[in-house]
From TrEMBL:
Underlying gene: FKBPL
Protein's recorded name: FK506-binding protein-like
Keywords associated with the record: Phosphoprotein, Repeat, TPR repeat
PROSITE patterns with a match to the protein in the record: TPR
Pfam families: TPR_1, TPR_16
């Protein structure tokens, strides 16, 4: 049985989400479809497998610390001491996203303490997103947790920022490493939503199935980055359920590992495969993908072990055979280089 390494797990079950799930999840959340959104470009094939700068930011929280220092330093140089700064630019008005993906500078404070939640319909003024981001410009309505606007990297950042804002708040979104002026957001109003812990288990599972199906569609369209975001959101929903959790978690981690390999993130792929193999030690795709990831990290012995396990279960697996041959060749080159270095040292 040959196993293509790039196919998401369980495609037949998730490529087309059932309409009833969509209907139930949207009725329960009280959401509506978004309006005034500009049409998005069709997904295009990914030509480069390395992560883009935004993806690297999501994995590198230290980037925001540097940006914050630069922001505060610029303010000091322009206005003198922090105590002399105008109110909108006080350092206390900088909010760091916990995952390090952006810094929000509050220009005008909002009212009250409530913030948008899952299912909240937000009326937003959006200015300054880069051309081709797939996001609307100007006044628009966006529903948190629902809609194709969340598929792109910028959409995910926008959603995270809205979840931190109060009604009437105006803010600038600073992205570490992103050139150009900051994005400006104004949250005029929003409807009441619900936190994920307020959802019933059946609602969480239905939403997770939708995310998984959307992720599989994006993966097939050549967009592993968008697929990874969908799989990640589905996992965050399911992780709040009591252990051991639904079996979909295993397939989601396996699919996420496939995306991470294509995005040049072998260490994350190893971690995703570890979670699969904790529940299913004989999972072929997870063993294969972890072997590929270990080889990319230079851990040739671990890569060999995983690939041999695949061949024990499925001796005719061509993908594992070919990858194992590459690992053997890589090991011989590594040994030859080591021997040459020793000869120079002691010769």
């Amino acid at each position: 049985m040959e196993m293509p390494p790039g196919n998401p797990e369980g495609e037949k079950d998730t490529s087309q989400p059932q309409e009833q799930w969509k209907k139930n999840s949207r009725e329960n959340l009280g959401s509506t479809t978004q309006i005034r959104q500009q049409p998005r470009d069709p997904p295009t094939e990914i030509l480069e497998l390395g992560p883009d700068p935004i993806s690297q930011i999501l994995e590198n929280p230290q980037g925001t610390e540097k940006l914050a220092a630069e922001l505060e330093g610029d303010s000091d140089r322009s206005h003198g001491s922090a105590s002399e700064l105008p109110e909108p630019f006080q350092a206390s008005n900088l909010w760091h996203c916990p995952d390090g993906s952006f810094i929000k500078k509050i220009v005008i404070s909002g009212q009250g303490l409530d913030k948008p939640k899952l299912g909240s319909r937000c009326r937003v003024l959006v200015l300054g997103f880069p051309f081709g981001s797939g996001l609307p410009e100007g006044w628009t309505e966006l529903t948190l947790g629902i809609g194709p606007w969340r598929e792109e990297t910028w959409g995910e950042l926008l959603e995270k920022c809205l979840e931190s804002m109060c009604q009437g708040e105006e803010a600038e979104l600073q992205i570490p490493g992103h050139p150009g002026p900051p994005v400006r957001l104004t949250l005029a109003s929003f409807t009441q939503g619900r936190d994920s812990w307020e959802l019933e288990a059946s609602e969480k599972e239905a939403l997770a199935r939708e995310e998984r199906a959307q992720g599989t569609e994006l993966f097939r369209a050549g967009n592993p980055e968008g697929a990874a975001r969908c799989y990640g959101r589905a996992l965050r929903l399911l992780l709040t359920l009591p252990p051991p959790g639904p079996p979909e978690r295993t397939a989601l981690h396996a699919n996420l590992a496939a995306c991470q390999l294509l995005l040049g993130q072998p260490q994350l792929a190893v971690q995703s495969c570890d979670r699969v193999l904790e529940r299913d030690p004989g999972h072929l795709k997870a063993l294969y993908r972890r072997g590929v990831a270990q080889a990319a990290l230079g851990n040739l012995e671990k890569a060999t072990d995983d690939l041999k396990k695949v061949l024990v279960i499925d001796p005719k697996n061509r993908a594992a055979q070919e990858e194992l041959e590459k690992v053997v060749i890589q090991g011989k080159k590594q040994d030859a280089g080591l021997a040459q270095g020793l000869r120079k040292m002691f010769g």
